[in-house]
Amino acid sequence: MMQKRILENTTKRYEKLPAWLMIILACLMVELFFIGGTVIGGLILTVLSMPFLISNLGNLDAIIETFTHLYVQLGIFAFITLILFAWVKWYEKRPISSLGFFKTNYLFEILKGWGVGMLTFSCSLGLSYLFGGVVLNRIDFSGNTLLFVLSTIPFWLIQGGTEELLTRAWLLPIINKRSNLALAIGISSTLFGIIRVCQEFCVNSKAEFESVY
């Protein structure tokens, strides 16, 4: 029942457009949500960080390190989510809950998602280790390490949740309504993968930049 509710798309804003055009525009809009949320979030963080920026005008390394910190990179996704919420609420004229925020068994669904994710990640890591793709030099269970890992969990939830909202909760139902479920799953999953690849590229580029400078 919940899966059917998630697939339902209650907005009628896009019905006048041809199906093929709407699918293309919807995919482009996902990227625009990312760009818009990142720009707005960056501007807000810059304004809020103005005292820090003024006091560190001569210390460019400190500024770069702060704005490229993992917390900032993941936290910026919250603004992307807010942009999507605003679009759904005021332009599409439908409740935000239609994106999949159902109260029925929500705690069980969250725990189930965590369980499946942990199992998938553990299997992937285990297979990589068995076939020599990963080498464990040491295992660190110090207090600082555990605190850092635990403190990043909410930010990873924001990042992963934003990607799921855009591709699964928003894009998939729109494409499904104008075509079919198989095509909707294929397109949304492909776009989800592209987003992940682009993020990996950005992270690697950041690492190369830091190694040079």
From TrEMBL:
One of its GO terms (biological process) is proteolysis. Keywords: Hydrolase, Membrane, Metalloprotease, Protease, Transmembrane, Transmembrane helix. It comes from the Bacteria. Residues 147-197 form the CAAX prenyl protease 2/Lysostaphin resistance protein A-like domain. InterPro entries: Rce1/LyrA-like_dom (IPR003675). The chain crosses the membrane at residues 20-50, 70-90, 111-135. Signal peptide: none annotated. One of its GO terms (molecular function) is metallopeptidase activity. Belongs to the UPF0177 family. PANTHER family: MEMBRANE-ASSOCIATED PROTEASE-RELATED, PROTEASE. This is CPBP family intramembrane metalloprotease. It comes from Streptococcus danieliae.
